[in-house]
Design goal:
Helix content is 51%, strand content 18%. The protein is of the alpha+beta class. The chain folds into 3 domains: 149 residues, Porin chaperone SurA, peptide-binding domain (Triger factor/SurA peptide-binding fold); 102 residues, Chitinase A, domain 3, CATH 3.10.50.40; 107 residues, Chitinase A, domain 3 (Roll). It has a 4-stranded antiparallel sheet, covered by helices on one side. 26% of the residues are buried. The N terminus is likely disordered. Its main location: periplasm.
Length: 431
């Protein structure tokens, strides 16, 4: 949802960013009042000029001038409101994130940063102006993402239903190498004993015992003399009782025990072909959160957190002890600040940036998110195979993107309707 990147790249392509025009003017005029902010006439003029240049380069036609002006004014009003929302919820884009974003803009424009600076300078835009405009675009995007994300509600049943549809499409080409153990029930054999044995065999398999060896010893299935090996099959080629149990599990998965009319079954996915494996990095981190108040300023919070870091580094107290004493995140504070193993994309952007870039064992400097001020320490990282849950993750992302885009439109309408907007230039024209 980095929609600001697309906007910026379009603007950079014409070497015009929606900042104040660098050319000297007699006096800039306020064109529109938006809440406690303004849109200047130079903002409108620059945006119109940029659109005209881009249209000529791409060979596209523009609407009539009065319609174009109205569209530009509405776009700038919405951008101003979103930037005000970013300020209201405390979004701050530090220089590190800003530099990374500008690097991305240059790369996507097939330029070095130095070439990008030169190209915008040739069009009369100073690099400090460019940086601040990028910073504002990112902040507005983060505010929009944060505030709209809270409005998106996805039910587990929705994810399961879509994941099943996606899985059925994928399963048409995926092949599985299946191992099978069948414990027969009947002819005087006790069902409870068979189930207990099946549970015991599953525990042994998960502990690493050889599947083929156990299949030879215990299986009464049709492939017992082959060590339970059914070979390679697509789901449509499997016995129904197998196909019903396989939900895109990854290589090495043990499935069961599950029952049928003839007894209990255990499956092992010996190998998979045609299914893309998914590995993710999980980060085990801990943090301390302190929130500013009318009494405790941002500067005061930073000073307090810096003192906490000093105490930890000096060995005067442990991170856990100080988290329990000071952290205002009750869930993690009770666990010595521990957040457990999580993928970093679950965190807000500023927090994600810290846990992605910190070395293991390193404590960050104080930084601010929409929740308050934090220090965080990365305790460990690990690679986890998530192939078996990849389809649900994909389904969730599809549903989230659909609903997010719907909610963005609604949210923009709401904040526009509730904003105070006064067209000053109309009044000037009337005078």
């Amino acid at each position: 949802m980095n929609t600001w990147k697309t906007t910026l790249l379009t603007l950079v392509a014409a070497c015009h960013i929606g900042a104040a025009n660098a050319n000297v003017v007699e006096m800039d005029k306020v064109a529109i009042i938006v809440n406690d902010g303004v849109v200047l006439q130079s903002d409108i003029d620059t945006a119109l000029k940029t659109l005209t240049i881009n249209a000529k380069k791409s060979g596209k036609s523009l609407p009539a001038q009065d319609v174009l002006v109205e569209q530009v004014e509405e776009k700038l009003i919405l951008e101003t409101i979103q930037q005000q929302e970013a300020e209201r919820i405390g979004v701050r884009i530090d220089d590190s994130r800003l530099n990374s974003a500008i690097d991305d803009i240059a790369k996507n424009n097939n330029q070095t940063v130095e070439q990008l600076i030169t190209s915008i300078g040739e069009e009369g835009i100073s690099y400090p102006e460019f940086r601040e405009q990028v910073r504002k675009e990112i902040a507005a995007s983060e505010a929009r993402n944060t505030l709209v994300r809270r409005r998106v509600n996805i039910l587990p049943a929705e994810v399961d239903n879509l994941a099943e549809v996606l899985a059925n499409e994928t399963n048409a080409t995926v092949q599985y190498k299946i191992g099978h153990i069948q414990l027969r029930v009947g002819d005087g054999e006790d069902k409870a004993e068979a189930q207990a044995l099946a549970n015991e065999l599953v525990q042994k398999l998960k502990a690493g015992e050889n599947f083929e060896k156990l299949a030879y010893a215990y299986s009464k299935g049709p492939k017992a003399l082959q060590g339970g090996d059914w070979g390679w099959m697509r789901k449509e080629e499997m016995p129904t009782i197998f196909a019903d149990q396989i939900k895109l599990q990854n290589k090495g998965s043990i499935i069961g025990p599950f029952g049928s009319g003839v007894g209990f079954h255990i499956l092992k996915i010996e190998d998979v072909k045609g299914l893309e494996t998914v590995a993710v990095t999980e980060v085990n981190a801990r943090h301390i959160l302190i929130k500013p108040t009318v009494i405790l300023s941002d500067e005061g919070v930073q000073k307090q957190l810096n003192e906490i870091v000093r105490q930890i580094n000096a060995g005067e107290a442990t991170f856990g002890e100080l988290a329990q004493q000071y952290s205002q995140d009750p869930g993690s504070a009770a666990q010595d600040g521990n957040l457990g193993y999580q993928t970093s994309d679950l965190y807000v952007p500023e927090f994600k940036h810290q846990v992605d870039t910190l070395a293991v064992g390193q404590i960050s400097a104080p930084f601010k998110t929409v929740h308050g001020w934090h220090i965080v320490e990365v305790m460990d990282r690990r690679e986890v195979d998530r192939t078996d849950s990849a389809m649900k993750n994909k389904a969730y992302r599809i549903l989230f993107n659909r609903k997010f885009n719907e909610e963005v439109s609604t949210w923009l309408q709401e904040i526009r309707a509730s904003a105070y907007v006064e067209m000053v230039k109309d009044q000037q024209n009337d005078n």
